């Protein structure tokens, strides 16, 4: 499973991208469970965010959902944090 996160917005407006491929990872099942929850609660179109807030585009194997601060669900927040931390 290929998970991509794109973060836009914020005070400086700097875009950030990260990606994780779960193929061959020992913790792949954890990623898959988290992705399932996060994507199920995402939107099909970009939501209207708050001034200087972050907006996120999560793409998993070609399917894209959108979410934004401050209305991230806990699974979305966890997934975004993990991908940004562990991804390339």
TrEMBL record:
InterPro entries named in the record: Emfourin
Domain of life: Bacteria
Protein name per Swiss-Prot or TrEMBL: Protealysin inhibitor emfourin
């Amino acid at each position: 499973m290929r998970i991509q996160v794109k973060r836009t917005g914020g005070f400086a407006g700097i875009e950030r991208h990260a990606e994780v491929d779960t193929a061959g990872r020992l913790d792949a099942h954890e990623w898959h469970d988290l992705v399932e929850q996060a994507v199920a609660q995402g939107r099909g179109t970009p939501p209207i965010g708050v001034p200087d807030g972050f907006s996120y585009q999560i793409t998993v194997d070609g399917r894209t959902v959108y979410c934004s601060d401050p209305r991230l669900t806990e699974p979305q927040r966890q997934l975004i944090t993990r991908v940004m931390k562990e991804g390339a």
